[in-house]
Amino acid sequence: MRRFVGIVFLGMALLFAQTAVNAQVKAMKDSTKAMTKKMKEAKKEAKEKVKTEAKMATEAKTKVSKEAKEKMSKGGEAVKETASTMKASTDEAVGKTEDGKTVFAGSRGGHYYYNSKGNKTYVSKDTK
User: Fold this and answer.
1) Alpha-carbon span 38 to 40, nearest angstrom
2) Residue 96 located in a structural domain
3) Pick from 95, 89, 90, 98: which is nearest to 112 by CA?
4) pTM surpassing 0.70?
5) Rounded to an integer, what distance in angstroms lies between the CA atom of residue 72 and that of residue 55?
6) Taking the mean position of all CA atoms in its chain, how far away is CA 60?
7) What is the pLDDT of residues 12-24, one digit of tens each?
8) Cα–Cα distance between 121 and 43 in angstroms, integer?
9) Do the beta carbons of residue 89 and residue 75 sit within 8 Å?
């Protein structure tokens, strides 16, 4: 009889332990599903943000092109001047070169100005 009671007690203890483990597994699955859902939502938001920024950049480029074409049709200054003016709007002006060109600070700390062709020309550390 003692042996039977011991086996029944052991069986019930295993049953309760299995129930607790199943509850923990279910909770972990639920939290994993919730995290996966949040990650998918964040990824979707990031894609939408990239699309919006790309659209804004395309619109700005189109605007620059239109302004440049209008300026050229009126016999104005070269297209590069308008393009460089629009490019510089994202970076902060920090000074002027000896030639009078505006020097900008880039996102990673470099200093540059736009040359006559509209390209960035970086200023060396010695001349800053």
Assistant:
1) 5
2) yes
3) 95
4) no
5) 25
6) 19
7) 888 878 888 888 8
8) 36
9) no
* pLDDT digits 0-9 by tens, 57-101: 888 888 877 777 777 776 545 444 544 455 545 788 888 888 889
Least trusted range by pLDDT, from 49-53, 57-61, 100-104:
57-61
Please report where in the chains the tokens 């639920």 appear, as a residue: 30
pLDDT at 38 over 50: yes
Residue 52: its H or E element: helix 2-73
Is the distance from CB of 80 to CB of 116 less than 8 angstroms? yes
Domain membership of residue 128 (yes or no) is: yes
- Per the structure, the complete domain to which residue 118 belongs is given by 91-128
Cα–Cα nearest to 115, from 95, 100, 96, 101 = 101
Number of structural domains (the chain) is 1
